[in-house]
Amino acid sequence: MSLHIRLHALENAKNTLLAQPIATLLTVLALAVVLALPVGLFTALANLQQLLARWHDQAQISLYLRDDASPQAIAKLRMQLEQSPGVVAVHFVDKQKALADFQHYAGMMAAIHTLGTNPLPASLIVVLNPLAQSSRELDRQVQQWSHEAIVQSAQSDLKWVARLQAIVALGTRAVYLLGALLAIGAVLVMGNTIRLHIEQRRDEIEISALVGATRTFIRRPFLYQGLIQGLLAGALAWIIVAISFGLLQGPVNHLASLYGTTFPLQGLHVEDGILLILISALLGWLGSRLAVGRYLNNTFS
Amino acid sequence: MIEFINVHKHYPGRRHVLRELNLRLEKGEMVLITGPSGAGKSTLLKLLTRLEAVSSGTLLVGGVDLTRLRRSQIPAHRRRVGVVFQDHKLLLDRNVYDNVALTLQVAGFSARQLDNRVRAALDKVGLSEHWREFPETLSGGEQQRVGIARAIVHTPEILLADEPTGNLDPALSTEILDMFRDFYRHGTTVLVATHDQQQVERLQVRTLHLDQGSLRESS
Ligand SMILES: Nc1ncnc2c1ncn2[C@@H]1O[C@H](COP(=O)(O)OP(=O)(O)OP(=O)(O)O)[C@@H](O)[C@H]1O
Ligand SMILES: [Mg+2]
Fold first, then answer.
1. What is the secondary structure of B55-108 as a DSSP string?
2. Which segments of chain A have a pLDDT < 50?
3. How far apart are CA B27 and CA B17, in angstroms?
4. Most B CBs within 10 Å: which of A210, A298, A299, as the mutation test of the B interface?
5. For chain B, which residues lie within 8 Å of any Cβ of chain A, measuring from their own Cβ?
6. What confidence tier does B153 reach under pLDDT thresholds 50, 70, 90?
7. Chain B residue closest to A296 (CA)?
8. Which ligand 1 atom minimizes the distance to the CA of B12?
9. Is residue B6 part of a domain?
10. Whose alpha carbon is nearest atom 24 of ligand 1?
11. Is residue A170 domain-shared with residue A190, that is, in the same domain?
C-alpha cells in the first residue's frame, strides 16, 4: 500500500480533528485524566519503594561470632557477605566495642566486672535493603549465614520486612488492576468518540463504499484519529503527572525536613513516559478499531 | 458483458421482486429499463453493484460471477463500474473537484495522478469552471453532472444510472441522457433505469420493460 494513501488518510484524520477543536480537546483531556491516575499512582509507588529502601538501618542482621574465629576467617566472611544480593553494608563489632556498647546502654558495669572476663561476642552487622529480595529468600540467606563455621548464632527480626513487602505487593497489584480498568475505560471513551465521528460521516462512508472503497480504506482515517488522540492524551497524561509531582515536592520537602532528611520525588522516567505515550496511542487505535469494525460489520453484511 | 441467467431476487420476508430474469447485454450496448414504481428497477441495478445479493441464479459481469464474489472482492468489482444516482449522493462538505476525485482516491490514486483525469471528467460534463464550488451552490442539473463526472472519471467499462433525470426538467433530462448516449457511443456499456417515456421514445435505443418481476423487450 503506497505512502500517499496513508498520508491522505492522515490528512483526513487531522482535518476532522481540527474541524472540531473543542470536541477533540475534551476527548484528549478525558483520556489524559483517565491515564494520568494509574500512571501517577504507579510513579508514587516507585517513590514509596525508593523511600522504603532507605530504611535499611531498620533491616539489620547480627551474626555473633565464635571467640576462636581468626581475623582472616572474619575478613573472608565479611567480604562474602558484602557481595551477597541486597546487602548494603557490613560492620564489624569486636568484643571491646560490644562491651562498651553494652555498658553504655545497659549500665550493668558492676555485673560484668564481677565476671572478670568479657562475655560478649564479636559480631558482624549486616545492613540490608528490605525490598531487594523476597522475605523468604532473605530468611533462607540468614539461615545459611548462621550455619557458617565461625558464626555462633544469628539474630534478626525480619517479620516486618515480610509485612512491608506484602503491603508493597498489594499496592502494586492494586495499581495494575486500576490501570487495567482505566485502560478499558480509555478504549471505551475512544470508541464512543469515534462512533460519533462515524455517525457524522455516514454519507461519506456510504458513498465511498459505493464507488469501491475497501474496508481498510474506510477504516484508516478513523484509526489514525484514534491513534493521534491517543498519542496526544499520553503526552498530556505525562505532563499532568509531572506537574502533580512538582506540586507535591514542596510538602514532601517540608515533611522530609521534619525527619531531618531530604527526599527528591522521582517523576516518570523517560522510558516509562514514552511507553505511556505508546500504550495510550495503542488504546486510542484499539477503541477506534472496535467502533469502526462494529459499524462496518453492521453496514456491510 | 452483463448476463442475468435465471436470476431470482427477494428481500427477506417478501415475495419475489425479480423472477427468473434472463438478460444479456453486449459490450458497448446501451439499454434503458422502464417499468412502474416498485417493479424492481433499482433492485436490478443494485444486484449489478452488489449492493444486493442475488437470491438464486447466476449474474455475470465482465466474466466475473457476482454470486461467487467474496465480500473482500466487492470493492474491486465496484471500481470497474460507474454509478449515477437519482439523488446524486454528493458529499456536501467537499467541492466539485473533490467529489469527482473520490472515485480515484479510493482506488489508490495520488493527488498528482488523479488531477488530469478529474479535469478531463469535469470537462466532459461541462463543469470545468465550477470545480471549486460546493454542491449546494449548484443547480439540480449541475449536481447531477457532478455525479456523472464521478461515475466516469475512472473510465469504467460499465455505467449504471438509476433514474438519473428523475428530478430534472425535460430540457435537462435531454442533456443528461445525451451525455449517456455519448459515453455509449465511445464504447461504454450503459444501463439506465428511467420513468421518462418521452426520453425513451427520443433516444431510440434498446429498451426493456420490467413489470411484476419479469422483463419484456420493447419494440
Ligand atoms: N431493502 C429492501 N427491503 C425490502 N424490500 C425492498 C427493499 N428495497 C426494495 N424493496 C421492495 O422491492 C420492490 C422493488 O423495489 P425497487 O426499488 O427495486 O423498485 P423500482 O422499480 O426501483 O421502483 P421506483 O420506480 O419507485 O424507484 C418494492 O416492492 C420495494 O418495496
Ligand atoms: Mg427505483
1. SEEEEEETTEEGGG--GGGHHHHHTTEEEE-TT----TTS-HHHHHHHHHHHTT
2. none
3. 26
4. A210
5. 49, 51, 71-72, 75-79, 83, 89-92, 102-103, 105-108, 110-111, 150
6. very high
7. B71
8. 4
9. no
10. B37
11. yes
pLDDT digits (tens, 9 = 90+) for B30-83: 999 999 998 999 999 999 999 999 999 999 998 899 999 998 999 999 999 999
Give B58's contacts (C-beta < 8 A, 6+ positions apart).
B3, B4, B5, B6, B7, B65, B67
When divided into structural domains, chain B yields a total of 1
Give the model's pLDDT for residue A134.
Answer: 81
Among candidates A126, A120, A134, A200, which has minimal Cα distance to A163? A134
Q: Which residue has cell 565464635?
A: A66
CB of B130 within 8 A of CB of B149?
no
- Decide the pairing of beta strands B206-211 and B30-34: parallel
- Please report, rounded to a whole number, the percentage of residues in chain A having pLDDT higher than 70: 95
CA–CA gap between residue A245 and residue A109 (Å, rounded): 53
The set of protein residues with a Cβ atom below 6 angstroms from ligand 1 is B 11, 14, 17, 35, 37-43
| CA-based nearest residue to B98, from B72, B65, B133 | B133
Helix axes B96-106, B140-152, angle to 10 degrees: 20
CA of B180 to the centre of ligand 1 (A): 24
Cα-trace Rg, chain B: 17
Tell me the whole-structure pTM to 2 decimals. 0.79
Distance from B19 to chain A by nearest Cα, in Å? 24
Q: How much distance in Å is there from the Cα of A236 to the middle of ligand 2?
A: 52
Nearest atom (ligand 1) to Cα of B52: 1
Q: Do A208 and B106 touch (CB under 8 A)?
A: yes
Task: Give the structural domain span for A278.
Answer: 2-53+164-300
Please tell me the distance from the alpha carbon of residue A91 to that of residue A108, in angstroms, as a whole number: 25
* Cβ pairs bridging A and B (under 8 Å): 51
Are residue A127 and residue A263 in the same domain, yes or no? no
A109, A135, A157: which is the final residue of a domain?
A157
